[in-house]
Specification:
Largest sheet: 7 strands, parallel
CATH topology: Rossmann fold
CATH architecture: 3-Layer(aba) Sandwich
Radius of gyration: 16 Å
Structural class: alpha/beta
Length: 209
């Protein structure tokens, strides 16, 4: 199984949209193991609406927490503790690709003893960092890269050529592409955005033998 983890430099940076796009482009399964916040629905429901993929391709969450907070605190308010033993990567059967969407940034706590980056290390899979192109992203993104061992970058937003050059140079990581603002989010626009701005070979390269 080829797993790609999608994380971000901040909340609401575009992780779910990028995850949906990659799920379509790689004909993958999608999994968000920890959903924090349910008032506006779940990210799995949003990916289903954007991609039109059947429920069998969108794997159920291991933890669904009511409050849109850091997972450790949201779990505490629900009277539970996130157990890392329950977060092993799922078996996707015959499907080669699995897109895993993280909850928040890489250094959010999952419980009082473990950060999300520790879970990523256990999974030992390539990580795609989604970063805004707005002011401040160089600092946020380089700090995120410092916390990761396997990393590549997808930018989201308007074109910022210097920022998109500076971060890969200083972070010594690969720029995978930039997802522009889309007027609508559906399977057609996501496939077109991937075709125009990304190269599947870059994602395949993470698993090149």
């Amino acid at each position: 199984m080829k797993t790609i983890i999608v994380t971000g430099t901040d909340t609401d940076v575009g992780k779910t949209v990028v995850s949906a796009m990659l799920t379509l482009a790689l004909d993958a399964n999608y999994w968000k193991p920890i959903q924090a916040g349910t008032a506006d629905g779940t990210d799995r429901e949003r990916v289903a609406a954007m991609t039109g993929m059947p429920p069998s391709r969108l794997l159920p969450e291991r933890y669904i927490l009511r409050e849109p907070l850091s997972p450790h605190r949201a779990a505490e308010l629900d009277g539970i503790e996130i157990d890392i033993a329950h977060l092993a990567l799922p078996d996707t059967g015959d499907n080669d690709w699995l897109i895993v969407e993280g909850a928040g940034g890489v250094l959010v706590p999952l419980n009082r003893a473990m950060l999300q980056v520790d879970l990523f290390a256990r999974w030992n899979a390539p990580v795609v960092v989604v970063a805004r192109t707005a002011l401040g992203t160089i600092n946020h993104t380089l700090l995120t890269i410092e916390a990761l061992k396997h990393h590549n970058i997808v930018f989201a937003g308007d074109a910022m050529p210097d920022t998109e050059r500076t971060i890969p140079e200083f972070g010594r990581v690969r720029r995978l592409g930039r997802l522009p603002h889309l007027t609508s989010l559906d399977a057609d626009t996501l496939r077109a955005a991937f075709a125009a701005n990304f190269d599947r070979a870059d994602f395949e390269a993470a698993y090149a033998r």
